[in-house]
């Protein structure tokens, strides 16, 4: 068995554009798991809306959630590692988002908060429904009682382009990255999918050359370059394909199935 740890992004990779896990891809992942390889989901989602996919496939182990900011045990729901943000430093960013009328949410490992749940516009509410999440109202930061691991802004792509450009000029306090066309994430400077995957591989006694990773967006580049074999989906931006070792079919063409068949089951 060449690859002992296999990291799969979720949206745009594991799931098709209808947010569905196809039966073919599910069966192939189960077959790879039976060979002894460990499957880990490595996603921008939180554990509460990524662990159900592990359970559907019948897998134990871990999910690397919030773009690497929190790693969680699938069975016990224990947070085995997280990168906590400086909550005082988050304030100016939230003020900026409010001033620009850019929607944002604040995430702890298992919880998500927004300014006003009842006041969310239809497009925003629909987005959360697609991702199987329902946020709660944000209390004062000092009352959260657990570390904040990610703040996500959600808006049109051109709006986020400008936001990214503007806050990118501030004193660098966070890792700021695009996790999707309509999403911009703020995290601890050390938080990334690649860093979290590196820590998990070390914990599991797996060498980098024994890791295979599949992803489709800019937030996947760190894990694609860490892995011994990094595979980009055909629906990836050119920069992501350039960072990968190989390119598989798109998420609407069961690209994960094709890659696992070629590199793990042939």
TrEMBL record:
InterPro entries: Cof, HAD-like_sf, HAD-SF_hydro_IIB, HAD_sf. This is Sugar phosphate phosphatase. Gene3D superfamilies: 3.30.1240.10, HAD superfamily/HAD-like. GO terms for cellular component: cytosol. PROSITE patterns: COF_1. GO terms for molecular function: magnesium ion binding; phosphatase activity. It comes from the Bacteria. CDD domains: HAD_Pase (cd07516). Coiled coil: none annotated. PANTHER family: HAD SUPERFAMILY HYDROLASE-LIKE, TYPE 3, PHOSPHOSERINE PHOSPHATASE. It comes from Paenibacillus albilobatus.
């Amino acid at each position: 068995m060449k690859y002992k740890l296999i990291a799969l992004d979720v949206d745009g990779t594991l799931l098709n554009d209808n947010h569905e896990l196809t039966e073919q891809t599910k069966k192939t992942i189960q077959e790879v798991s039976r060979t002894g390889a460990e499957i880990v989901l490595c996603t921008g989602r939180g554990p509460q809306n990524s662990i159900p996919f592990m359970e559907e496939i019948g897998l134990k182990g871990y999910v690397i959630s919030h773009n690497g900011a929190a790693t969680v045990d699938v069975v016990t729901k224990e947070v085995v590692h997280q990168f906590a943000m400086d909550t005082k430093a988050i304030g100016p960013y939230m003020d900026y988002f409010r001033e620009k009328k850019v929607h944002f949410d604040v995430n702890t490992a298992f919880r998500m908060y927004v300014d006003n749940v009842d006041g969310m516009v239809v497009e925003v509410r629909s987005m959360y429904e697609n991702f199987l999440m329902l946020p709660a109202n944000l209390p004062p930061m000092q009352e959260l009682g657990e570390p904040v691991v990610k703040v996500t802004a959600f808006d049109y792509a051109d709006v986020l382009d400008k936001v990214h450009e503007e806050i990118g000029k501030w004193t660098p306090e966070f890792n700021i990255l695009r996790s999707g066309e309509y999403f911009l994430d703020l995290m601890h400077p050390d938080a990334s999918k690649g860093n979290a995957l590196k820590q998990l591989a070390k914990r599991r006694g797996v060498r980098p050359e024994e890791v295979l990773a599949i992803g489709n967006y800019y937030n996947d580049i760190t894990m694609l370059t860490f892995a011994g074999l990094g595979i980009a989906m055909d629906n990836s931006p050119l920069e992501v394909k350039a960072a990968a070792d190989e390119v598989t079919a798109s998420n609407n063409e069961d690209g994960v199935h094709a890659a696992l068949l070629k590199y793990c089951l042939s």
